[in-house]
C-alpha cells in the first residue's frame, strides 16, 4: 500500500500497529494533529507547524509539490505561532497568531494553502497556493477553530460565528 509517507516514519510502509513518529518531532510537545486522506499536519505547543505526506497540490505548504515521508516544518510560518491546523483532501488551513503592528494586539488569523479548485482556500479565486496565504477577506475576524472536509473549509470565529468556503455540492456550506 502506497501512502505517500503520510504516517511520517520516513517510508511509505503502512503500519497496522501504532508506531511513534520520531525524526524532527522527537522531543517536541505536540498540541494537535490533523489528518487528511493523503497528508498530516502537526502543531507543537510552541506553535510550530509540521506537515508530511502527499504534496502534489502544495497541501504541505513547503513551496513546492513534493511529497515527504518525514515531518517538515512549514518554514514560511516560522516565527509565528500556529494555534491549530486542519487538513482537507488536498488543502490545509491553519489558525495563526498575528500581532497588529498599529496597536500590538494579537489575533488569530486564517491561513490556507494547497488546492483551491473549489474555492476552499477562501481567496475569491480557484488558484493553488504552495505556501500559506493569509485570508484577506476575513481580516477583521479572529478564529478559534477550523475544520476541513474533502473540498471545503469551516472556521469558527472567536465571536461565535461560522464561516464556510468551498464546494457546496451537497449543502455542506450551510448556505441556502
Automatic annotation (TrEMBL):
RCC repeats lie at residues 47-98, 108-159, 160-176. SUPFAM superfamilies: RCC1/BLIP-II. Transmembrane segments: none annotated. Coiled coil: none annotated. This is E3 ubiquitin-protein ligase HERC4. Keywords: Repeat. The keyword Magnesium does not apply. The keyword Repeat applies.
